[in-house]
Amino acid sequence: MTRELTDSDYLAELEPVAADALNQHLSRSVHWYPHDYVPWANGKNFAAAGGEEWDPEQSQLSELAKAAMITNLLTEDNLPSYHREAMTHLSLDSAWGTWVNRWTAEENRHGIALRDYLVVNRGVDPVALEQARMEHVANGFAPTAEEEEAIGAGVLMAIVYPTFQELATRVSHRNTGKVCNDPVADRLLQRVAADENLHMIFYRQMSAAALDLAPDQTLHSVASVIEKFRMPGTGMPNFRRYGVLMAKHGIYDLRQHLEEVVLPPLRQWKIFDRTDFTARGEKRREELAAYLETMSKQASRFEEQRDRLLAREAARAEQRDSAVVG
After folding, report:
1. Is 249 annotated in some ligand binding site?
2. pLDDT reported for residue 320
3. Which 8-state DSSP code applies to residue 52?
4. Which of 60, 63, 170, 260 is a plausible cystine mate for 196, CB 3.0–4.6 Å?
5. Given this model, what pLDDT does residue 325 score?
């Protein structure tokens, strides 16, 4: 039976890989500045500075775009919790610490840029937005005791979970930009999504190295992360309502989660082609395959229900329009 690796084992063995992945990231990353993505000429003072307070009529965003933008921004706002988790499990020593701090600095730009865009354009109520930020950041985000027990070594949680999480936020940001009906917002969110993709690549490389180092143990963590995955925005005000709206209109739904977030890393790691698992790993791989099949069936059922719902809504809208014309 193979030995279970500890966090210290993973940190020591993977540190050279982290150093190389960090250097690759630095060579690929793009220097950009939040102020270049905000239409400052649209801004005006609020009441406390002699202007006027926000009014819903001032927003040019649809209810769907508002929900998605708020969800994305509040997710970015909870960076202190994400930094704490990364720092705790990956440490601030050597290449690990350089990565954690660099990643945190890059992620911080996202919240700055998104908030500036929304406030300058009066896209959402800034008071409600700030209240939601305070509540969400105060609550924080961390793995539950059940998740920690299931996933295992903290280092694995800190590199496997972000592989999928960074992909998830990339999808959400990219699709949110498309529904804002504003080329400025679309450009900003494409920029943020590109950052998330580079972050995902770092974590995906680290997870690949962990799989080579300890195949069975790392596979178990990969499968557990997938089975117990929670979006980082879970727990924010209105998260469920906004999430349903986003899923209904194709910004982030179960099919996208499966095909654009879960499956690509599994293919990259060749999870279902590897021959280095023991019987224990083979069993866990079979369990993961069954879980993915269940996810696919659930996604199909949701799509069928959504199509029927949208068709009924379209028919009612057509009847209303006909009645008005008549």
Report:
1. no
2. 73
3. -
4. 170
5. 64
